[in-house]
Amino acid sequence: MPRPRSSTGLLPLGPVEQLRAGRLARRGTQLMLGLLLYGFALAMMIRGVLGVSPWDVFHQGVARHLSVSYGLVVIATSALVLGLWIPLRQRPGVGTIANAIVVGLSIDLGLAVLPAPQLMAERIALLVAGILLNGVAGAAYIGAQLGPGARDGLMTGLVARTGLPIWVVRTGIEALVVLGGFLLGGDLWIGTVAYAVCIGPLTQFFLPLMVVRLPRHEPIDRAPASIENDAAGSTSSHPLEDVNPC
After folding, report:
1. Which of 53, 45, 203 is nearest to 124 (CA)?
2. Second label for 36, Cα 20 to 30 Å away, from 45, 56, 95, 216?
């Protein structure tokens, strides 16, 4: 029987189903390119020094107290968040593990090659381009349908366990990480607000263009509300967005 599909083309696939659904070479390539661009876009925002994404406020605060690279903090945080999946009975996909590693490495690469801008116009350009590219990248890796990012999975797992609306859970998580990151010295400024406001609509706009259609599953006109909500929520989301999506 055909699996229900949201209007974006996303399917509710488990980890094994993700690998068996077809077009794996195309989806794997899109996943990796999306994750690389996602991390690079975050590096652009960091170099702009006008505020970073909510989770990156936390990453930045932690990085300022440790003698390790920013990307390593992102990877370590992803691993800790994945540990929280266990009591929520969430199952990571290939994309989940790749997300936890590749985004952090890409951020470090971006920070190594991007010069620190001197002019305000350059900083604004980096911020705007970073947010826009992050929306494209989030849609790309979500559209590969190989599993959500660690932070997105935490959000949707809590939604499933608590029954609370997705916006309540996501707002609560991001408020906590922003507060913690700010207290640790992370950059909380206009760029953080701009990212929070723009990333959801951007990801939702690009997602239908990026979803890899899986030929083994026929679409339906209307999907269950939970699937629609997941696609709208983040990445970034996928249960995303979070659509941060990191």
Report:
1. 45
2. 216
